[in-house]
Design a protein that fits this description.
Length: 492
């Protein structure tokens, strides 16, 4: 039992040991006899030890507590009101005040501050004990997230491990322990205890550890309540982003430009997807086609695709029909890096198809290798498939990078197919992915089909494979076909 000033009451400790030691001794003797093969005496001694243990815990300990504790409540009894109170809070400032009051009332520490992520993303907000300020603790956090930090452990931290920064934070806050607040394996905050007197053990039953766990749950709950209040605003933002994204994509109908036909289809898995595709006429019988995939979904993905779309328009405005796919990807890389700052990346493939010269120029930034489909040599025969193998880093990983432009023939009757990994990664109800093999089989059976028929065939087989399973990722497929025809030019 803890004394009012902290520590254990000697009288309580002696009485407790007196009650518990006979039970422990009898249990140990019984275990030893059993190990020596003396089953009868060993079992008897072990049973007696367990009986004494039950007597000590169930009868003697409560009597000792009442006799020596003068009827004072145990600390964990005082913690229940705190747990119930903070579970209903939706404000971190109120939570910090409740934390400070709880550690004082339960004689755990002289006071406590709460450190939570700043809403503006500029560091952490320190609240409590008359403080409300924003600090940058990135270096110190490297050490704090590993477990409770004291001045001693901060000084003993390896070089570069955040020890000096954690020590400076302890001194700034007047604290002697920094405790990471974990919720579902995430650190949602930090409790800075001032004059902590209890043992800190997040895996044990110490009073400070109990308060820390209750506080972590309360922080997570405040985030949930804030998200609930913001749900309507978030829904509206996603709806706006989806509208923006729709305006960036060409329609699903086939576009004819001289002797070239272009068609693409985009199926998002969520309100706002991460896939992107576009095409632009460069000159008579010459078009640019681009397909890409942003890591993630939602509003950030829509904003990145908007930046990429604007970048493509700017490059085309500057160089016109002379656009080089590799140089275009380099420009797109700079745009993604400036917008996403490596938090999101984008894979992309750019191709310039020229029906007049019969040439295909292309460059790749981490995207799936496209297919070139040659017409079947005879009726009923399969089409010949060739993958355009070109490699390059994803867009946005670094500020500056270069991409190599490759060239190959693009003959009348051939089709270029671009696609994102949402097609091959889509799973059936049994968990089997659609895969490259099924995609190749579908393309090989396309013969001399027009772009709309090729896309409809692939998506139809994908739908049958899914059998009603929801999309696990965005799906985008684009086909550019070289086919002699006499039609007016169309803009996307």
């Amino acid at each position: 039992m803890a004394r009012d000033g902290g520590g254990l009451d000697p009288g309580w400790l002696v009485a407790t040991l007196g009650a518990a030691l006979p039970a422990a001794g009898a249990t140990a003797v019984g275990a030893g006899l059993l190990a020596a093969g003396q089953t009868g005496p060993g079992a008897g001694a072990l049973a007696g030890g367990l009986a004494l243990g039950g007597l000590a815990m169930g009868v003697l300990m409560p009597i000792i507590d009442r006799a020596l504790g003068s009827g004072r409540k145990q600390p964990w009894e005082d913690l229940m009101p705190y747990t119930r109170h903070v579970a209903g809070l939706d404000d971190t400032a109120k939570l910090a005040a409740a934390l400070s009051d709880a550690v004082r009332r339960n004689r755990v520490a002289r006071g406590a501050c709460l450190l939570v992520p700043d809403e503006e993303g500029e560091g952490v907000r320190v609240i409590g004990e008359g403080r409300d300020q924003t600090l940058a603790i990135d270096a110190a956090f490297e050490l704090i997230q590993q477990g409770p930090v004291t001045p001693e452990s901060a000084r003993a931290a390896p070089e570069g491990g955040g020890g000096p920064e954690a020590l400076a934070l302890l001194e700034l806050l007047g604290a002697n322990v920094l405790v990471p607040l974990h919720h579902r394996d995430l650190v949602v905050g930090v409790a800075a205890f001032q004059g902590l007197d209890s043992a800190i053990d997040n895996q044990g039953g110490g009073m400070a550890a109990r308060i820390a766990r209750a506080t972590a749950l309360a922080i997570a709950n405040t985030h949930l309540q804030t998200a609930t209040r913001s749900k309507r605003s978030l829904t509206e933002a996603l709806a706006l982003s989806a509208v923006v994204q729709e305006t960036l994509m060409p329609g699903e109908r086939a576009f004819h430009h001289g002797e070239l036909t272009v068609r693409g289809v985009f199926r998002p898995m969520a309100e706002c997807g991460g896939d992107f595709w576009t095409w632009h006429p460069l000159s008579e019988d010459r078009v640019l086609a681009v397909a890409g995939d942003v890591t993630g979904h939602g509003a950030p993905a829509a904003m990145i695709t908007a930046a990429v779309k604007g970048c493509i328009e700017a490059v085309l405005g500057a160089v016109g029909a002379r656009v080089d796919p590799g140089e275009l990807l380099s420009a797109m890389n700079r745009a993604v890096f400036q917008v996403a700052r490596t938090q999101w990346l984008m894979t992309a493939f750019a191709a310039v198809c020229d029906a007049k010269t019969g040439e295909l120029e292309f460059a790749n930034a981490g995207q799936n290798f496209p297919y070139l489909i040659a017409p079947a040599s005879a009726a009923g025969a399969e089409s010949k498939l060739t993958q355009l193998v070109a490699r390059g880093n994803a867009l946005g990983a670094v500020a500056q990078t270069r991409f190599t432009t490759q060239r190959r023939p693009f003959l009348p009757g051939e089709r270029l197919l671009l696609y994102t990994d949402g097609i091959i990664d889509q799973a059936s109800p049994t968990g089997e992915t659609f895969g490259e093999k099924r995609l190749r089989a579908s393309l090989a059976a396309s013969g001399g089909d027009e772009p709309p028929a090729i896309i409809d065939r692939v998506l139809g087989e994908l739908d049958r494979h899914c059998a009603g399973t929801a999309l696990g990722d965005d799906v985008t497929i684009v086909v550019v076909a070289s086919e002699p025809r006499a039609v007016p030019l169309e803009e996307p």
